[in-house]
C-alpha cells in the first residue's frame, strides 16, 4: 500500500487520540509522508514548510481511522443461509468484495479484520489493496472458516449434493481439524475462524448449541494454527462453547453472547478480546420481518441481543477488551452501515462514547495485531485519520453520515471525504502562514 509524500497539517478541531482520554481542544496534527510527526495543542505545532497541505477541521473532530473488527467482504444482501454458498459464482463475489472494501474505506474504516470469506477472496483482496489495485481498508485475512460436520455452517442436506468448499472446511475429528488448518496455512490466512457454537438463525443449532465442534477439534485447531504463527477465533454464543474456546487457547471470541462468571474469569486470565457484533441482532429483530424471518428466529435474536448486551457490559466492567464490528452484508444489515454499531452501543447498551470509540480504534488495531502501527493518534504511527464535521463524542451517530467527513486519510493519503472530491480546492500553507 503506497503511502503519501509531503506534509499535511490538520488543525482547528477537537482531537480524540483513541486511548479513551478526554478529547484535546484546539488540537493540531502534522503528517510527514505517511506518518504522524506531531500531535498536540495547536499552539505547539512546529513551523511548517511551504506547500504543506492544510486540512481545516472547522471545529469538528479529529480521530483515528475506524477499525471494523469483524468484516465479511464477500457477504452481499444475504437473506437466507443458502445465499452464502450458492447464490453467486466466485467471479461475481470477487467484484462484490472489492466494492464492499471501497465502501468501508469511504465510511471511515481504514482497517478491517476479516471474520470469514468465501473462496479465500479476502486473502487476495488484501493483496490487491496493498498493491494499490483497488482501494480498501488495511486487512487481516481469515479465508474459509472451519466447522464440524452437521454444525452451524453445514446446513445443506446430503441429498442436495452441494458442497460447502467455498464457504467452510468441514471437519470430523481432531485429525481433520489439523488438516483444515494446514490448508488455510497454504492459502495465506492470518486468522483461523471456527464455529464452536450455534446461532439464532439456524434451525437445528440454536444459540445454546455447543456441539458444532468438539473440544478436541478446537484444541487441535489452536495447536496447529499457533505452530504456524496464526491466531484463532470462533463464533461463540453458548456459555459452555465460550469456555471451551478459552480453555482451548483461542486468541479472540466473536460474539461472546452468554457469559457467566467463570467465562469472564477465563477471558481475563489471557486478556482475550471479544467482538460482540450486536447491531446485527438489533437489525434482525427490527427489520427481520420485512425479509421473512420467522418469529422463532426473531425471538432467538432478541434473546441473543439481551444476553450479548449484558455480557458486553460485564466484560468492560471487569477490565476486558472489546472490538467493534460485525456481520454486515445481510439484507437487513447491509454493508455501509458499519457505524450504526457504535451508535447502538452508546444508545442501547449504555456505554460511554469515549469507551466505544476506543473499542473501535485502539482495541480494533490490537486485535489485528497492529496496535504499534495505528489505532491511536501518536507520533510515529501511520497517518490513518478521520476528520469529521461535528462533535463525534457528543453525538456518535455523526459517524453514520459520510457527508460529514472532511477527510478520510490512510497512510497520509486523502482517500475520502470532502477533500477527496475533485471540485474541492486543496489549501496550502506558505512558509509564513502557520
Task: Tell me the layout of helices and strands.
Layout: E1 7-15, E2 24-32, E3 35-41, E4 52-56, E5 61-64, E6 66-71, H1 83-86, H2 90-106, E7 109-114, H3 121-130, E8 138-140, E9 145-148, E10 168-171, H4 174-187, E11 191-194, H5 215-227, E12 231-236, H6 239-248, E13 252-255, H7 261-269, E14 274-275, H8 279-287, H9 295-317, H10 340-347, H11 353-367, E15 385-388, E16 405-410, E17 413-416, E18 427-429
Helix pairs in contact: 4-5, 5-6, 6-7, 8-9, 10-11
Structural key phrases:
2 domains, 30% helix, nine-stranded mixed β-sheet, single chain, 434 residues, alpha/beta, Urease, subunit C, domain 1, globular, TIM Barrel
Low confidence ranges:
423-434
* Morphology: globular
In the residues, how many domains can be counted? 2
What would CATH call the class of the largest domain? Alpha Beta
Largest sheet, in brief, is: 9 strands, mixed
- Calculate the terminal CA-CA distance, rounded to whole Å: 31 Å
Average pLDDT works out at: 92
Helix content: 25-40%
Which CATH architecture of the largest domain would you pick?
A: Alpha-Beta Barrel
CATH superfamily membership of the largest domain: Metal-dependent hydrolases
How much is the radius of gyration in Å?
A: 22 Å
What fraction of residues sit in β-strands?
Answer: 15-25%
Number of helices: 11
Q: Kindly identify the CATH topology of the largest domain.
A: TIM Barrel
